[in-house]
Amino acid sequence: MILIVDDIRANIIALKKTLELHDIEVDTAESGEEALKKILKTNYCLIIMDVQMPGLDGFEVVKILSGNKRTKDIPVIFLSAISIEKKYIFKGYETGAVDYITKPVDTDLLILKVKTFLKIYDQQNQLKVMKDLLSKEIKIRKEAQDNLEVKISERTKELVSKNEELEMKNHELQQFAWVVSHDLNEPIRKIQIFIKIIKELYLTTDAKGIDYVDRTIKAAERMQTLITDLLAYSRLSSKVKPEKTDLNVVLQEVLSDFDYLIERKCAVIKTSQLPTIDSIPSQLRQVFQNLIGNALKFSGNVEIPIIEITSELIKTKDFDSEIAPDGKFCRITVTDNGIGFDEIYLDRIFIIFQSLNDRQTYEGTGIGLAIAKKIVDKHNGLITAKSQLGKGASFIIILPLQYEN
C-alpha cells in the first residue's frame, strides 16, 4: 500500500485516482502529524509526500522516519509545485528521500517510478523472507549439529568406558584361563605319572591291563593338548606390538621342530622366498605350525607326502588379486597332497572344536585352524582353503606387508 501525504485535498484525490487506475492500493493523510500516526500503525511500501505543509512539513516528517528503526527503510518520493529550487531538492535527498519530483508531474513517469519502487519493495520482502528462512535453517542445523556433537561425545565416552571394562574383563579372563589350565594340568600330570608307574611295576605281563593303561595315557595326553590349545587361543586377545618379521626365519624354525616327523614320513618340503612383514612372530609361528602340522598329520596313505609353501606379492587384499611386484599384500599358500576335504565343510574348519575327521584315526583338538584364523584376523589378513577329497588341500593366507590398526 502507498501513502499519499498532502495538505490540499484536491491534490490527494487527483493523485489517488491516477494510481488506482493502475490497480495500486492507496491510503491518504492531510498533514505530517496524521501521516506519522498512520505510518506507526500500518506498513507502507512507498510514501508520496508534499514538501510544504502546515505544522510538520515533508522534510521534518522524513527526518523523523529516518531516525526510526522500523520506518527508516520506507522509500519516500517528494512531490512539490513550490519548492522546486536546487537547495530544496538537495535537502530532500539529504533527509532520506529516494526521489524528488516537481510539478507539473509527468503522470507516465510517476507511475513508472511508483511501480519500480513497488517492485523493489516486493523483492526486498522476498529477500527478507528468504533471509529469515535461511537464518532459521542455519539455527536448526546448528542445534542439530550441537546435539549430534553432544551425542557423539557421550557415545565416545560410553564406548571408551565399555572398552576399558572389556579390556579389564579380558585380562581377568586370561588370568582365569592361566590359573585353570595350571590347575587342570597338574592333576593330569600326576595321573600320567602314576599310570606309568602302575604299568611298569604291576602290569609287565598283563597285556590287557597294559592296553587299558596305554589308552588312559593317550586320553590324558589329549586332555593336556586340549588345555594347552585353549590357553593359546585365549592369549590371542592380548595386545602385542608387531615387529619386522622375516617369514623365512619363522618357517625354518617350524620346519626344524617337525624334523623328526618329516623324516619319519619321508615328506618332501618345497619352499619359495617369503617376504618380510610387520607381524607378531610367535603368532605367525603358530599359524605355520598348525598348517604344516595338519599337512603332515592328514597325509593319509600317500607314499611321499609333498608340502609346498609359496608366496607372491599382490595388489589388493583379495584372494584372486593379480600379482604385483610393488604390491602391499602377500599371498602365502600351503599346499599338500594329503586326504583333503569336501569344500562344503569349508565354513566349519575354522570354527573352534570343529573337526571333519575321526579323532580316533587323526588325533587333534579341533582348535588349530581356529587359532590360525584368529591370528590372521588379528593381523588384518584373510585365510581360506581349497580342497577335494583325496586330492590334497591348499590353505591361502593374505597378509599386509605393513601392519595397520
The shape is rod-shaped
- Let me know the CATH homologous superfamily of one domain: Histidine kinase-like ATPase, C-terminal domain
How far is it from the N-terminal to the C-terminal residue, by CA?
A: 69 Å
Classify the fold: give the CATH topology of one domain: Heat Shock Protein 90
Can you count the beta strands? 12
User: Which spans have pLDDT < 50 for at least 5 consecutive residues?
Assistant: 358-362
**Main β sheet profile:** 5 strands, parallel
Question: What pattern of helices and strands is seen along the backbone?
Answer: EHEHEHEHEHHEHHEEHEEHHEE
Structural class based on helices, strands and sheet pairing:
alpha/beta
EC number: 2.7.13.3
Keywords: Kinase, Phosphoprotein, Transferase
Catalytic activity: ATP + protein L-histidine = ADP + protein N-phospho-L-histidine
GO molecular function, one term: phosphorelay sensor kinase activity
